[in-house]
Amino acid sequence: MVFYALAAAAISAAFALTLWTQYRAKPRPYLLAWSVALAIYAVAALTEVIGAAAGWSPLLYRTYYYFGGILVVGVLALGTIHLLAPRFGRTALLVLVALAAVGLAGTLGARLQPSLLQTHAVPSVDTIRVEHGAFNAVAILMAAILNIVGSVILIGGALWSAYGAWRKGGAQSRLVANILIAAGAFIVAGASTLTRLFHVYELFYVGQAIGVLVMFGGFLAAQRAPRRAGNLKPAPSR
How far apart are CA 162 and CA 134, in angstroms? Predict the structure, then answer.
């Protein structure tokens, strides 16, 4: 399964570089957020490559947990906010930075279960247990908040914007972009859920690679949409 984790890392890194290049050519906050998010995703996937090949250490797991379990969905959602509701972008960034700082403190201070790190697969979620201290509780809470709220913003925002594009007869590329972003997020989340519930690690790695590909297709489609199609919202009911 190292191949799929490596593929996810390589794809994410390549896409992060592509979006960064686009940001340098046309500075847009959402491009920067998505570029950073995919770079974070690449780091998280790389920890899985190292863990699958050489086994897990406490430092490697903390890096994996913080980047993949706490940060990435929140930063993706920040990009969605900058794209669809830019006036809330600064506030969203400040909230994200505060939650990420608290999550970092929790992750670094959390007590791990060393026996669960003795694997070449993705370690069990029980590696950080809530009853093992305040730092553990903080790390788990921040992961839950950022993933739940971030997923709602990312997927909900994409679907809402897609509906607005369809309702107004807007640019086809905008509609496709938002559907792809939502679908990619669903694939990644679904793969993660299957892994946690059934320990199906093959689906986890494959799902990551496919999900990132689909989301990046959505990001590219969003860039091809005409500027007048931006900030699409459902037409008001008459």
Answer: 41
**Residue 108 amino acid letter:** L
For residue 91, is pLDDT > 80? yes
- pLDDT, residue 156, reads 84
3-class DSSP state of 190: helix
**DSSP letter for each residue of 68-130:** IIIIHHHHHHHHHHHHH-GGGHHHHHHHHHHHHHHHHHHHHHPPB-GGGGS-SSPPPGGGB-G
> And the tokens for 218?
């959505």
The whole-number pLDDT of residue 122 equals 79
Q: What pLDDT digit, counting tens, does each position of 142-154 carry? A: 999 998 898 888 8
Enter the tokens of residue 210: 């496919």
Burial 184-223 (b: 16+ CB within 10 A, else e): bbbbbbebbebbeeeeebebbbbbbbbbbbbbbbbbbbbe
Longest pairwise C-alpha distance within the chain: 62
pLDDT for res 65: 93
The answer to whether residue 73 scores a pLDDT higher than 50 is: yes
The domains of the chain are located at 2-229
Q: What is the CA radius of gyration of the chain?
A: 18
Rounded mean pLDDT, 192-215: 70
Sequence-separated (6 or more) residues with CB below 8 Å from residue 8: 41, 42, 45, 48, 205, 208, 209, 212
Q: For domain 2-229, say whether CATH 3.30.70 is its number.
A: no
